[in-house]
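Kindly inspect this today.
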Amino acid sequence: MIRSALFILAQCTWGILQTFVGSIVFLLNIRRKHYLYHGAVITEWGLKSSLSMGLFCFVTKTPFACGCCTAEEVGHRLVVHEYGHSIQSLILGPFYLFAMALPSMLWAGLPPFEKLRFRKNIKYHWLYTERWANHLGEKVTKEDSMRDLH
């Protein structure tokens, strides 16, 4: 309980820039399903991608199933990964947006990077932002992230 309160306080001070952006996205998705996870507000939204902005994590409600686990387990691993991005926000504060969020969004969304990953068989989690998010999410929650998937 104290840990979650400190998480929220830090996200609303040191991580205020991304938390502010996240609060706007949250309000735009207010009718979606929400729940708390280690102090972070998790929102299941209709997009195929996920996003973390400070206190707020937005995860796809339609995760893929893979050969090693169910769609439900992949969904939970995705939450752990996105929570790792929230921990990055705690560490980097206002630098998170440029050091983590922007490179992550470009890596995820630009077609040239999608083609590069496909052509060279590079895992999505190869990028430093994603590897570090997996590591932090697993270390803090003691749960599996997306690290070993796709």
Q: What stands out?
A: The CA atoms of residues 25 and 46 lie 13 Å apart. The first strand starts at residue 33 and ends at 37. Residues 2-61+68-141 form one domain. The longest helix spans residues 71-92.
